[in-house]
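# step 3/5: fold
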Amino acid sequence: MNRPLTAIILMLSASQAMATELRMLTSYDQTSAYTREVAQRYIERVEEASQGDLTIGLNGPDVVSPFEQLQPVSAGVFDLLYTHGAYHTNTTGVGAAMDAVFVGPDATHESGLWDYIDEHYNELGLKLLAIPPLGSSGFQYVLKDPIEGTPGLEGRRIRGSATYTSTTQGLGGTPVLMSGGDVYSSLDRGVIDGAAWGLNGVEDFGWDEVAGYFSKPTFGQTYTYLFMNLAAFNALDEEEQAVLLEQGRELENETAGILDELALQEWESLKEKGMQETHFQPDDAERLDALVNEGIWQLGIDKSPEAVGTMREIAEQNNMTATSE
């Protein structure tokens, strides 16, 4: 009579032993909107789609700095990485250059751009799983003081990554390279006068406590990436690989809408907490998109001339970016 029970226990043990456990690094704090709405959403989708055969543990930037995460994933110390391309421009400009491409996941795939980026990162020991957009628009500035006159950031020290450098400089500001986790204390101590950031996460970081304004209009577009160590991906069976890629594709198609709605909710909440909108003058507002897009392409070309040059050709041929005049 014990045989059936013993058999069930053995079957359950075998099933559990077959489960693949993966470790992910995220470049964003684990409580941030991007980790929560993109990385953790992906983890949940994968675990559900695989019926628990694939599980993913999450490790934040307190374990490895965002600017140093590509190497340990390429080396296989971690299996997965959720990041932004600007955090590894010392290695390649391809990831950051995607921020000059209009939001449209289907076009990114159909044009061949997705496959091209995948092949590029394969050479770095990584497999591309997804390029989730962080909304239909990309960026804003969080400022201690309101914008007055033009150029709107004249004389201010502004946190940013390499993505924002040309825009901040074009608006008269001085860029300061800094991770998101260091912004609160730097604003509080007056080390910086503001921060360039995406449209989500200001409230998560509590920047409303040390800055009084967020800028309008928003500008540009921005993407994050989900990568996997290439050897670890190739070691999975075809069904597991398919789950990771299919859930990545699904994620790409839903994040823009989710984060757009969250941005609207966050702005209302920030206003209730005392923050106010501050607006760039028309002369500055009209050139925001051109500043950020051209600056991003140039950043990418400076770092990886041939690869980013090809990216830009694909994007321009498929009307996925503003063409140079």
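# step 4/5: annotate
DSSP finds 14 helices and eleven strands in the chain.
# step 5/5: archive (pending)
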